[in-house]
Amino acid sequence: MFIELGHFALILALAVATLQAIIPLVGAHKYWPGWMAFAVPAANAQFFLTATSFAALTYAFVTSDFSLKVVVENSHTAKPMLYKVSGVWGNHEGSMLLWVLIVTLFGACAAWFGGNLPPGLKARVLAVQSMVGVAFLGFVLFTSNPFERLQFPPFNGRDLNPLLQDPGLAFHPPFLYLGYVGLSMSFSFAIAALIEGRVEAAWGSWVRPWTLAVW
Question: Which of 76, 102, 106, 121 is deepest in the core (most CB within 10 A)?
Fold first, then answer.
């Protein structure tokens, strides 16, 4: 049941991301405060839904749910818990879901801590960040679905890639993604400024903390 919830949450995240990519942009263009303000709850919802989906996949690995194809191909009942958890992102499908989770995390952080941003710029930044989310959510759902079920689940999995069974490599992808994917915020600020048609002197001070944090 939790697995289906995770899959459904991922679908809802794509729907919310699509709305977030459109409504705040239109609101900023038309100077409609309500439409611009939509970006904040949408960013929060998108992160919550993606986190729910990631939690469901993690649960499947921890409990060795071999009805999921990705768990069969990347886990085993005899694995230590560390490698069961790291198996979540030790494959293409799971790593892409982690990628999307971090994209939505930074979008939510911009919604939480972007109170000093002008409303129009904030709406555009969150809309552009959501466009990035739409691209990757669509990719995950339509080409790399981690929730693909097997009709006849095996009794055990094929084990995690031996090259990834190392504590350093277990923690490497999340930290790498935090920096690498986090630069999407700098991209969103840059594109938002281009859409707005002007770059104020204060723009550098707004984007600087995000760039330094991920660097």
Answer: 106
CB contact set of 50 (below 8 Å; sequence gap of 6+): 9, 10, 13, 97, 100, 101, 104, 137
The full set of domain ranges for the chain reads 2-214
64-119: pLDDT as tens digits: 889 999 999 888 888 888 888 888 998 899 999 999 999 999 999 999 998 888 99
The sign of the CA dihedral 178, 50, 131, 68 is: positive
* For residues 189-193, average pLDDT: 92
Q: Rounded distance, CA 148 to CA 98, Å?
A: 17
pTM higher than the cut 0.90: yes
Specify whether the CB–CB gap between 170 and 201 falls below 8 A. no
Contact 161, 74 (CB under 8 A): yes
